[in-house]
Amino acid sequence: MIFVRTRAGTFTALGIVLAFGATVGGCKTLPWLGGPPNSTTAHDEPELAGNPFSESQAVRDVTAGHPASTNIVGLAFQVYRVDLPIIGDARHSLKLWNHVDELRANPENVAIRARSGVRIGAFSPRAWPAIRAILDTANARVHREQVSAPFGLPLTLEIGLVDGGESIFSYSPGGRLVGKTFAMGKKLILLDYAVYAAMGGRIDLQVSFEVRHDRGVMTWERQDGILRQVPAYDSHVFRDLAAVMALNPGESLLIGPSAEAKNDLLLGSRFFGYTRAARRFEKLIIVTPTFLQQSSVATR
């Protein structure tokens, strides 16, 4: 498995050889449109040594013992953008978390995210019927898109724009409420990813929240020993709220507001709450990674 350094300061899977004999490289759109992809039964996995998103672990070799023929596949993401109306004090989004596992992420930060108005969790394909029933009951609007990340870079999901002079607050690990005011920019969710061959294609997704302002100019940056022109931007990442979530094949990631998002100044409200035509709404993001076979090649 090869990880490359990204501009976000983490590592992204560049080339992966799956345990069932498949090499993961580029991405393309998903073939299914009628619901979640076919799943593989989740099973207990051995603990990994090290963190693929840490700076000390750049290369992991998992090619030994693979068959002479491998399948070239693509890694794609099915993204559901959900808009739920808030009627009075009724917030149907909170019911979804009864079917989601939040404790796969670093447990010490779960409470910090919840206090900051954010929740992140994983759910299996078996939870889809219950989740669909909750969304149908709440008259949710669901927009589905098929996206792929730029090769070697995190998947970036734009959530909204910063209102002029908007302040966003979150809690630190020490329990201190901290905030920052932004003149302009985009509210983004970044999904960095790594795939594990020895674990049947298990995917680790690192979720982080960022406000980024493109300066509209280009600057020079050294990448892999080569000077390249890249867009210059100002960026603020809410690092204390980041989470690494392990997904087994067929599982999905849910990102959305917590009960504390009723506080208008917290990140959960600023990212996931909005008002339109005097009606209040909240947003949720569901992400399902999927492998797609593209071709077969022979190897030595």
Tell me what the structure shows.
The protein has 300 residues and is mainly beta. It has one domain. 9% of the residues lie in helices and 48% in strands. It has four helices and 16 strands. The protein has helices spanning 93-96, 110-115, 128-137, 267-272, and strands spanning 2-5, 11-18, 22-24, 69-86, 118-123, 141-147, 155-161, 166-171, 177-182, 186-196, 202-223, 226-237, 243-247, 252-257, 273-276, 279-298. Strands 1, 2, 3, 4, 5, 6, 14, 15 and 16 form a nine-stranded mixed β-sheet that branches. A hairpin with a 5-residue loop joins strand 1 and strand 2 (11-18).
Element-by-element helix/strand order: EEEEHHEHEEEEEEEEEHEE
Instruction: Determine the fraction of residues in helical runs and give it as a percent range.
Output: under 10%
Summarize model confidence as the mean pLDDT: 76
Bulk shape:
globular
Give Rg in angstroms.
Answer: 20 Å
| % residues in beta strands | over 45%
Uncertain segments are 1-72
The major pleated sheet works out as: 9 strands, mixed
